[in-house]
Amino acid sequence: MTGELSPIDKAKFAAAKQAASLVESGMRVGLGTGSTAAWLVRCLGELVREEGLRFRGVPTSSRTADLARDVGIEVVSLDEARWLDLTIDGADEFDGDLNLIKGGGGALLQEKIVATASDQMVVIADAAKEVERLGNFPLPVEVIPFGWQTTQALIEETLVSMDVMGRQTTLRMNGERPFFTDEGNHILDLHLGRIGNARQLAMVLNQIPGVVENGLFIDICDKVIIGYGDGRVETRDINAGTVSESQLDFVEDDNIFRDI
Ligand SMILES: O=C[C@H](O)[C@H](O)[C@H](O)COP(=O)(O)O
Question: Which residues are catalytic (predicted)?
Fold first, then answer.
């Protein structure tokens, strides 16, 4: 029941539910990863089961693939879909230009490939994800395991000439062991505090041997849907330059909350 959901979950749900209404039958849709994207997948599952929505979903992680299948969404690979009408995903941070930091859940590589292969990328988020300048959230960088410490040293050396506030980097762990992505890579989290030039940093990081991809999404996101705990939803479209607001009524006995 919604009464048991925290305000932050209500905010994530509100954004996700609004975004789910963008999906039409026949579409090919990229499905993001993370707690906000999980709400989206549940909302879409409900539309599939109860309203006959028919679309093909391309998940951005094994976790999302499992959930999408569980809720009844037809799952296909990106290569089967080839090009997508829309991708909907969460973010760890977004700024006023809708540039993003992603990868807090370790799925940035598939997420960036899928979002880039889409006509439109929509981010769903609670208001706390909005920042004036990116960088407070540690920037995830996916690196191959071979020589990862050398790659880390090269990244740290590179950061010296970048416009950033902090330069500490840490290997992401999963308990006692290094975290592995779906592609079998590691994640280095870059504690930068503040990124002066995100576009330049994104390009420079990807030049370093051993770096597979970084979590800066520059000029990829078209629209952000921001949810609030009281059901308010704000949609900002960077291309159209529009901002619109709506209000979601939480339905207390909504099936979607049953298993949460
Ligand atoms: O790798 C994970 C993704 O980039 C997520 O979209 C991001 O971490 C946001 O996740 P959440 O919705 O759980 O805050």
Answer: 111 (proton acceptor)
What is the CATH classification number for the domain harbouring 25? 3.40.50.1360
Q: Domain of 100? A: 2-130+219-257
> Whose Cα sits closest to atom 7 in ligand 1?
91
Query: Rounded to whole angstroms, how far apart are CA atoms 169 and 154?
Result: 11
CA dihedral 171, 34, 85, 234 (to 10 degrees): -120
Q: Which amino acid is present at 182?
A: D
Residue in 117, 23, 27, 106 with CA at minimum distance from that of residue 64: 106
Tens of pLDDT, residue by residue over 181-230, are 999 999 999 999 999 999 999 999 999 999 999 999 999 999 999 999 99
66 and 28 in a common domain? yes
Q: Are residues 225 and 206 in the same domain?
A: no
Query: What is the tens place of the pLDDT at every residue in 44-85?
Result: 999 999 999 999 999 999 999 999 999 999 999 999 999 999
Are residue 90 and residue 195 in the same domain, yes or no? Answer: no
ipTM: 0.98
For the CA of 32, the closest atom of ligand 1 is 6
Q: Looking at the structure, tell me whether residues 12 and 112 fall in a common domain.
A: yes
Q: Indicate whether residue 32 lines ligand 1 (CB < 6 A).
A: yes
